[in-house]
Write a structure and sequence with these properties.
This protein has 376 residues and is mostly helical. α2 packs parallel to α3 and α5 runs antiparallel to α9. It is a multi-pass membrane protein.
């Protein structure tokens, strides 16, 4: 009874201190529960803040990701700029050569090539020595110098031949013949190394040659001498690339294209200057006369020469920032763009047969590049 009464009083009588432990326990439980909730809320809040920061790019890794994306976008824009400059300079030098040699009355392809090589010599030196576009590579031996001189002579032959052909052929047909470079490269590579490619690779060269044959038959302004010079220039260009791979194959002699141009250009000028004076004896008189009649003559010559160097520089930079395969694909497209622009500018007549032949050649070149990539 005392126990029972005490129990009843312990529950209901507020004057008694017996029930206090019950309330204290409840308060403690409540406080403990509230405290743990507050701790969880704070941790959850911190986690949510971190997640929100990452999602918004404000956190550490998110910031790095944002910076990486920004850097990637800048790199892509730079590549687009390079490709645009490469297209402009390559197509520009072809069209300017055609305009000077055929439409302007400046019929001196050897002297024009010498102007190109002079600009390449000066601008290559400035770009490498002063602007550090690439590290300068030095010539290490007499043997290496003789190899570079040989390459320079072959390079001169290819450029002079191409410029001579522009006096007699339309740019569209000139580009069609020039697209056969892979055929000559494959022939010279086999003759020099006796190394055979896969039969599929050689089969891809059939449409390359067939397209030019078809284009020749459908070319309204076909000129035999111009065709021979263009074919010779194409063969010399292919021979130079094969010869370069053979002569400068050792690690100690390898030069990147910009340093090779730096050393080849002055040699080319020394060869082309006497050749121009002997084979084009009235070049100085005619050039001065044209300069008097056309005030923009010197500006046009300078622009053409600088554009020729820009074509070489951007060719190197596009290869460096993309790949040789990308450059090959862009080169095929460049030829087609040059053909379209030249037809619009010079209004040279074209036939469906001629354009069909050129298309076949370009498709053959693309197939050749793909088979080389797959079966190398």
């Amino acid at each position: 009874m005392i126990v029972g009464g005490g129990a009843r009083v312990g529950v209901w009588n507020t004057n008694q201190r017996v029930p206090v432990p019950s309330r204290t326990y409840q308060q403690k439980v409540s406080m403990s529960t509230h405290g743990s909730y507050s701790m969880r809320s704070k941790a959850s809040f911190e986690n949510e803040a971190k997640v929100t920061g990452k999602e918004s790019g404000g956190g550490g890794s998110g910031g790095k990701s944002g910076k990486t994306m920004s850097s990637s976008s800048k790199e892509n824009l730079f590549i687009v700029f390079l490709v645009t400059l490469w297209y402009s300079s390559n197509i520009g030098v072809i069209l300017l050569n055609k305009y000077l040699l055929s439409n302007y009355g400046f019929k001196f392809p050897i002297f024009l090539t010498m102007c190109h090589m002079s600009a390449c010599a000066v601008l290559s030196y400035v770009s490498i020595v002063f602007f550090k576009v690439v590290p300068q590579q030095m010539i290490k031996s007499r043997s290496q110098f003789m190899k570079i001189a040989t390459l320079s002579l072959v390079f001169c032959a290819s450029v002079v031949g191409g410029n001579i052909s522009l006096r007699y052929l339309a740019v569209s047909f000139n580009q069609a013949v020039g697209a056969t470079t892979p055929f000559f490269t494959a022939v010279f590579a086999y003759l020099a190394t006796l190394k055979r490619e896969a039969w599929v690779t050689y089969a891809a060269l059939v449409p390359v040659v067939a397209g030019v044959v078809i284009a020749s038959g459908g070319e309204p302004g076909f000129h035999l001498f111009g065709f021979i010079m263009c074919l010779s220039a194409t063969a010399a260009r292919a021979f130079k690339s094969v010869l370069q791979g053979i002569l400068l194959s050792s690690e100690g002699e390898k030069l990147n294209s910009m340093n090779l141009l730096l050393y080849m250009s002055p040699i080319a000028v020394l060869v082309l200057l006497p050749a121009a004076l002997i084979m084009e004896p009235n070049v100085v008189d005619v050039t001065l006369t044209l300069a008097k009649d056309h005030k923009s003559m010197w500006l046009l010559l300078m622009l053409n020469s600088v554009t020729a160097y820009a074509a070489n520089l951007t060719n190197f930079l596009v290869t460096k920032h993309t790949s040789a395969l990308t450059l090959q694909v862009l080169g095929n497209a460049k030829g087609a763009v040059a053909v379209v622009i030249s037809i619009l500018l010079f209004r040279n007549p074209v036939t469906v047969l001629g354009m069909g032949g050129y298309t076949i050649t370009v498709m053959g070149v693309a197939a050749y590049g793909e088979t080389k990539r797959r079966f190398r």
